[in-house]
Amino acid sequence: MKARKSNDYFRYVLNLFKRNRVYTRKEIEEKLKRRGASVEEYEDVVKRLEEKGFVDDRRYSEMYIYDALTLKKWGRWKIRQRLREKGVDENVIEEAMAKVTGEVDVEGIIIDLVNKRIGDGKTSKQEIRSVKKFLVNRGFDIEEIDDAIGKMREM
């Protein structure tokens, strides 16, 4: 009976993947708990999914970070927080962050956001403060912001 129920849960999760969405280990566990799976059952299902490559928090984190940086234009702090909320281990987040930010021009993203907010014209201190606040709220580090704005002024 347990094997049958475990297989039902496994099929349920496989159907979730048909929605073209990837899930973290914790998200799968929570979905199975809501469906009534015991700890033993959801651990079995997640283990099988990991063995088959359907659940991989490291790969998930790398994709999430890349998309959040390049598409959503979020900074590292906001991305880290979102991944923590999804239950991703801190070490996995840091390794994925280091890998992806080594491949993505974060400074260029900040410069693009600044240009969209204030353009290329001369700006007041108030406008600069406003842009910095905007970027901090998007999760960028103040040092990254100051470096990017400094390079913009040199151009």
Write up this protein.
Helices cover 74% and strands 0% of the residues. It is mainly α. The protein folds into 3 domains: 2-51; 57-101, Arc Repressor Mutant, subunit A (Orthogonal Bundle); 106-154, Arc Repressor Mutant, subunit A, CATH 1.10.10. Helix 4 packs across helix 6 (90-101), helix 5 (76-85) packs antiparallel against helix 6 and helix 7 (106-118) packs across helix 9 (142-154). The protein is elongated.
Give a brief rundown of this model.
This protein is an all-alpha fold. Helices cover 74% and strands 0% of the residues.
Features of this protein?
155 residues; mainly alpha; Arc Repressor Mutant, subunit A
Summarize the helices and strands and which ones pair or pack.
Blueprint: H1 2-17, H2 25-34, H3 39-51, H4 57-70, H5 76-85, H6 90-101, H7 106-118, H8 125-137, H9 142-154
Helix pairs in contact: 1-3, 2-3, 4-5, 4-6, 5-6, 7-8, 7-9
The coarse overall form would be elongated
Order of helices and strands: HHHHHHHHH
**Oligomer state of the chains in this structure:** single chain
Q: Give the C-alpha Rg.
A: 20 Å
Task: Classify the helix fraction into a percent range.
Answer: over 70%
Largest sheet: none
Kindly state the mean pLDDT as a whole number?
Answer: 89
Q: Please, how many domains?
A: 3
Q: What separation lies between the terminal Cα atoms? A: 69 Å
What share of residues are in beta strands?
A: under 5%
- Broad structural category: mainly alpha
